[in-house]
């Protein structure tokens, strides 16, 4: 009989039969194998650890209200700067998408259109045909919807931004305004049945600026509930641009405004026009979008 005293509260080490491994050893082995496998994946770039890094806030010479970062889609041409949306009005609904187009895309559209520019016209509300008018003194032309890879990329970007399918849009219209040329205030929606047979009513317009304008050439909303006097860029506007809500043309930016309210009624506050160019040239591209599919 052993004379060594037994110590209470201390369990003797468990002895496992030969060939049987402790569960703690198994867990440790699995953990080591998993760690080694993860390191191999990281080394070959198959897996990456999430790392949060602060992104620089967008800089613009005229800060304005609510802003939100927006991601572009599609291939297109060239590199675009920091993209973000600026709310300029809720009555009518109007937003500026900064750096919507790259410089290369702006130049591409201008060069594509230059050989085919003709005197701009307006739509006759009775016949639906184009006619000359003194209220519109620019020159312009239409690019067929989906005509090449660059156009398709831009049109897809428009659809992603507006949530309006590509098939609901008319072809891009390229416009050129020289010194003194303008477009008197007008509506983009129709008040007759003839022009709504194809695609229904025009619900929204995206106006893309393809060039800067030294002076004048603003897009003006005469009846907007916001006046230009309250805007940071008020001093940059011409006298015409100060009569209501004026937006100065900046190459690459796009102005989205809605001709219809969320309840599908027409918005008379969407009345808009193009101020006369005082110095320089103004190039722009317009995309009109309809409620239904527009058969190009």
TrEMBL record:
Residues 168-291 form the Fe2OG dioxygenase domain. It is found in: Endoplasmic reticulum membrane. Its main location: endoplasmic reticulum. The chain crosses the membrane at residues 21-47. Its cofactor is L-ascorbate. Residues 54-80 are annotated as: Disordered. InterPro entries: Oxoglu/Fe-dep_dioxygenase_dom, P4HA-like, Pro_4_hyd_alph, Pro_4_hyd_alph_FE2OG_OXY. PROSITE patterns: FE2OG_OXY. It catalyses: L-prolyl-[collagen] + 2-oxoglutarate + O2 = trans-4-hydroxy-L-prolyl-[collagen] + succinate + CO2. GO terms for molecular function: iron ion binding; L-ascorbic acid binding; procollagen-proline 4-dioxygenase activity. It is a single-pass type II membrane protein. Its EC number is 1.14.11.2. It comes from the Eukaryota. GO terms for cellular component: endoplasmic reticulum membrane. It holds the Pfam family 2OG-FeII_Oxy_3. The keyword Protein biosynthesis does not apply. It is an enzyme of class 1 (oxidoreductase). Keywords: Dioxygenase, Glycoprotein, Iron, Membrane, Metal-binding, Oxidoreductase, Signal-anchor, Transmembrane, Transmembrane helix. Belongs to the P4HA family. This is procollagen-proline 4-dioxygenase.
């Amino acid at each position: 009989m052993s004379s060594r005293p037994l110590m209470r509260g201390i369990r003797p080490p468990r002895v496992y039969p030969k060939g049987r491994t402790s569960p703690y050893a198994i867990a440790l082995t699995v953990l080591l194998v998993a760690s080694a496998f993860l390191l191999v994946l990281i080394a070959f770039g198959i897996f990456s650890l999430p790392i949060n890094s602060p992104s620089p806030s967008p800089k613009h010479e005229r800060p304005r209200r609510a802003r939100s970062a927006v991601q572009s889609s599609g291939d297109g041409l060239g590199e675009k700067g920091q993209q973000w949306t600026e709310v300029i009005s809720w009555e009518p609904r109007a937003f500026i998408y900064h750096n919507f187009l790259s410089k290369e895309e702006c130049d591409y559209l201008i060069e594509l259109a230059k050989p085919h520019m003709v005197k701009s016209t307006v739509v006759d509300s009775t016949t639906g045909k184009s006619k000359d008018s003194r209220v519109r003194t620019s020159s312009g032309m239409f690019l067929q919807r989906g005509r090449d890879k660059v156009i398709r990329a831009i049109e897809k970007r428009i659809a992603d931004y507006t949530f309006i399918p590509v098939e609901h849009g008319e072809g891009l219209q390229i416009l050129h305004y020289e010194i003194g040329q303008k477009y008197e205030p007008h509506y983009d929606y129709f008040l007759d049945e003839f022009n709504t047979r194809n695609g229904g009513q025009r619900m929204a317009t995206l106006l893309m600026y393809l060039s800067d304008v030294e002076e004048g050439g603003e897009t003006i909303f005469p009846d907007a509930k916001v006046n230009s006097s309250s805007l940071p860029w008020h001093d940059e506007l011409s006298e015409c641009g100060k009569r209501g809500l004026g937006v100065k043309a900046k190459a690459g930016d796009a102005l989205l405004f809605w001709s219809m309210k969320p309840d599908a009624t027409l918005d008379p506050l969407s009345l808009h026009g193009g101020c006369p160019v005082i110095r320089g040239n103004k190039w722009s591209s317009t995309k009109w979008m309809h409620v239904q599919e527009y058969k190009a």
